Amino acid sequence: MAAIQITNVEKNYQSLRALDRVSLSIEQGEFFGLLGPNGAGKTTLISIIAGLNRADAGTVTIEGHDVVTDYRAARSRLGVVPQELVFDPFFSVRETLRMQSGYFGLKNNDKWIDEIMHHLDLTNKADANMRSLSGGMKRRVLVAQALVHKPPVIVLDEPTAGVDVELRQTLWKFVARLNREGHTVVLTTHYLEEAQALCNRVAMLKAGRVVALDTTAKLIQRISGSQLVVRLASGQLPDSLKPLVAIPDQLLGGTQFTLRVADYNDVEPILARLREGGAVIEDMQLQQADLEDVFLQIMDGEK
Ligand SMILES: Nc1ncnc2c1ncn2[C@@H]1O[C@H](COP(=O)(O)OP(=O)(O)OP(=O)(O)O)[C@@H](O)[C@H]1O
């Protein structure tokens, strides 16, 4: 049984099609990345998964339970870390987590609450009022809140947007551990190096449609070989090299170009052509392709 089964989900906001027949099957134990540029539909999809928003068509099930017709069973299997920070400012961290436990009918949950607070480095803030916490601390509580009922499926909507390196590391360590212990994790993020490091499989959304779905490794393999990034001090990229440009937007007038190369042997002829064309190189680097390159290519509609 899939952890999350999304079948032909559609969502319209007036004339805007935010989700266009999205189908995804996320298996139990996966660490799954949902990627896409601003406005692609990620948050809309997550809020439908969480039962906070209704699809116009299609279905979503969590471990077999429909999020609309079997809401309570679906919701109890799901922990959602939303993008926005919304709290009652008058409660302490511990009270907030106890209340959330109560919502799921859990009375004596302090042992697990203590454990979550420990892993998220919140223990010394347990009795602090929510309103006294910094934004990053509030975000930790948001994560803790999503986990109070030990949900088998955890969905994180941009949990590291604007948070410091320390929280990112604390958070990923904990989430990776939960994943190793068998929890399914679905993540949206704009930090593609994070997605690359953590997710075994990735879906890319663009304008409400799934435009790529594969293992992270296979997506990266789609970009064969390496990339030569050259920055020109003067001159222009000769026409003969333009077909090698991996990121078409760079042809719109920049001085930096990312060129596809199979291996080191390709580099010297490229440099020769640049010199013949009168270009002067300011800087160059040979890089392995990564998820960000794949993302840019797919979003540019090249592949
Ligand atoms: N309540 C709403 N009313 C009208 N349009 C909406 C509403 N919520 C979202 N949209 C639109 O639906 C589209 C998808 O938005 P969504 O927030 O799901 O994108 P996203 O991929 O999460 O973007 P981001 O990366 O910026 O968070 C956008 O064009 C957005 O403007």
Automatic annotation (TrEMBL):
Gene3D superfamilies: P-loop containing nucleotide triphosphate hydrolases. Residues 4-232 form the ABC transporter domain. Pfam families: ABC_tran. This is ABC transporter ATP-binding protein. InterPro entries: AAA+_ATPase, ABC_transporter-like_ATP-bd, ABC_transporter-like_CS, ABC_transporter_ATP-binding, P-loop_NTPase. The keyword DNA repair does not apply. Keywords: ATP-binding, Cell membrane, Membrane, Nucleotide-binding, Transport. CDD domains: ABC_DR_subfamily_A. SMART domains: AAA. The keyword Nucleus does not apply. GO terms for molecular function: ATP binding.
